[in-house]
Write a structure and sequence with these properties.
alpha+beta, six-stranded antiparallel beta sheet, 34% helix
């Protein structure tokens, strides 16, 4: 049995260290990408407060396709370059969006979302997926969140 629980009072960098350690422990040696994304989505949901969606979109045949997630039902396919996820994948660059309503071409899968953090997962120089975090709070994500999720993406890059 795994019982990874964050310390609710620890500083954000420490919470991300604990999150990454838990993801590493759960995915190390497991060859199934779906299982690894599912467990990682569950960890994100448990470790990060104020989310309304946490999960993955996989790059399949030139478009993003919904992967394992926690939250309300979501858009199934996103073209590269469209919305926050599509831009992150097309540019291979993290997108930290304080107000999604001000983001040109934002795709509203959940009308309650106000801020978003999308981090590409890159293997051998190619985007294979994105980690997508949504929050109903404006400006929920900051540079510490970005660094923590980028570290997670690095750990998962050869496991999904």
């Amino acid at each position: 049995m795994f019982d990874f629980r964050p310390d609710p009072d620890c500083p954000k960098p420490e919470a991300y260290r604990q999150l990454c350690d838990a993801a590493d422990a759960l995915t190390s040696g497991e060859p199934d990408a779906v299982a690894n994304m599912a467990n990682s989505a569950a960890l994100l949901w448990d470790f990060l407060p104020d989310l309304n969606w946490a999960g993955f979109y996989r790059l399949v045949d030139g478009e993003l396709v919904l992967g394992p997630f926690v939250g309300r039902p979501a858009c199934i396919r996103i073209p590269l370059g469209s919305g926050v996820c599509g831009v992150a994948a097309a540019k291979s660059e993290t997108q930290l969006v304080e107000d999604v309503h001000a983001f040109p071409g934002h795709i509203a899968c959940d009308g309650d979302t106000n801020s978003e953090l999308v981090v590409p997962v890159v293997r051998e120089g190619q985007v294979v997926a994105v980690i997508d975090l949504d929050s109903p709070k404006k400006a929920r994500f900051d540079h510490e969140d970005r660094a923590g999720i980028e570290k997670l993406a690095s750990i998962l890059s050869d496991r999904i």
